[in-house]
Each structure stands twice: as structure tokens, then as C-alpha cells.
User: What shape does this take?
Amino acid sequence: MPHLLRATLILALTARLGAADVPRPAPPPPMVWEAKLPQFEVADYTAAVEKLMAKIEAAAGRKIVPLAKHRVGLKIYAESGAGLATPIPLTQAVITALERRGYAPGEIFLVGLNQRRLAQTGYLPSLVTGHSPFDGHKVFVLESGRFYDPRWYFDSPLPSRFDPILMPQYRTTASADPDLDADRKSFLATPLFLDVDFWINLPVYTDHPALGVNGALVNATLWNASNTARFFGSPGTAPAAVAEMAAIPELRQTWGFTIVSLERWQFIGGPRFNSLYTLSEPSLWLSADPVLLDALMLDRINAARVKAGFKPVSEDIRLLEFAATLGLGSRKTTGVKLLPAD
Assistant: This one.
């Protein structure tokens, strides 16, 4: 049986958030560990990642070691283009930490969405040298269509369309299949939940006109499936789609944790990269709670917007509230302290 979840309009979703129609895993403890980065070099990231992974191993009471499938996936982010992608030194550091724990290079793969952006950001081999920083590791390009399974999809009443004027940075091809049911489906990237012991989310943070915050939850969902550009233009339907996709049990069960670098993040104009509105902090965060990470970064985004003379992100965008109600984590940041990895 295919796994099927429905996105609805905001009023309908609000009415049923209290119902038990979506399986709800127990939310992870609201912990975020932080390691400081002296510089943004591979050695700095390697030391920081090792400290952070040791912390989550201690909290979980078990070491990260290869399990039955002997594979780990890394969901990287490159959709803002060159200048605002998962830092390559961070990805290399995570790979090093996994290899120290028993995974062979060929057992660690990367997942990205768009081939052109992956090439622009250095994740695919250079046309000049034919090499990349990840030789020996497979990089799965989702838009190739080779990593979706017809039995696993997210169903939504929205058709395969988007507004090219409102969101010109997203390009998608409407389904040629006359079957309207097929036009409603967003197929999921099955390598991250069928073929791995677990996977690690490596997002980058920007603001987003339809979602408020583009980070851990969005990188794991709309940037991780087919036929999702239709959601990006609507603050009414995009938060519902992200929350329900992130609540799919199989995806949650293999989602180990999220690591995010604050080397560069954007507070307005996103998700398209604009260097005028980016900030940098020498910090690396790790958490098993994607909602709390997004909430903490939304606070930072709003503070930066106000300081620069812009309005905060609209409170009508309820992505984090929906995700918290579905048991994906905590959106309350009051009193939350970053736990030092040292």
C-alpha cells in the first residue's frame, strides 16, 4: 500500500490538527548543542562535528555504529545557489565522523535536488577537472527522477502548477500524464528512508515568503520530493504540506538529527541568495528537534530584519505551530539555552 497523506487548506487543517489521523511519534527532547568554530575550515568543522556527535551519542545512551543496512544518507541544501549552500567543509567533516564510526566511504551518500545548483555549489564533479570533494561518495540528484518510488508519495489537492511571476526562481514541468490523480502526487526520495540505517539533515537557513523560515523542516520535505514547486507560492498550503510530509513515520524513523552551520544565513529576500542580507556566526548546531532549530533561527531572522528596518516574518505563517502539533518537536524558544559541546 502506498504511504498517503493529504495536505488541505489552512482552515481544514486547523480544524483537524487535534485528531489522530496522522501517526505522531514522541517529540525529541528540546535540546540544541552548539560548538564554536574558530574558522570555517575543514579542520575546524571536523573538531566541532566530533564534539557534537559525542554529545548526542551520550544523550541517546548508544554509539553511532553501522546497523543492518550499513548506509547513511546526507541531505544537503543547494537550492539558493552559489553562496548559500551546505558548506562543503561541514559535509566533509560529517563524512569523516561517520567513517571513524565504521562506515566505509561507499556507504555514505549525498542527496540533493537540482543538478545545476549542485554543480554550481561544488557538490558535483567539476567540468574542468572531472573531480569533486566527494569522489568515492554517490551524489543522488533527485530531479533526475531515478530515486522516487511510485508506491511512496504525498498527495495534495493542489495541481502541478505554480505562479512564475510570484516565484520565478522555481522551474518545474507540469505533468504530461492526463491522470489528475498523478498530477496531485509528490513522490518521496526513498533512499533516505528505505535504504539507510539513518540519515542526517544538513540545511542552510533563509527566510521564505510562503514558509517563513526555510531550514530543517523544508530541506527534509519540499526540497526532498518531486512536484513540490506548486506549494512554494502559497502561505496557506505550503506550511501544511511541510508539516504533514515531515510527519510521515518512515521518514521520521530514519531521520537521525540535523546539523546546521551558521557560517552564512539570510534574513530577507530568500530563498534566493542575496549577499546584502546575509549574516555569519562562528557556530555549529546539532539537534534531533527540527522544529526547535527552525524556531530558534526564526527568532534570529526576525531580530535581523527589525534591526535592518524590515518587518518580522508574518505571524500568519503557521509552519512551526503545525509541525509542533503533529509531534515533530517544540516551537517554544523561551528559556531554551544552547548546550555547549565543550
User: Anything to note?
Assistant: Residues 10-19+27-340 form one domain. The chain has eleven helices and 14 strands. The chain has one domain: 10-19+27-340. The longest strand covers residues 148-155.
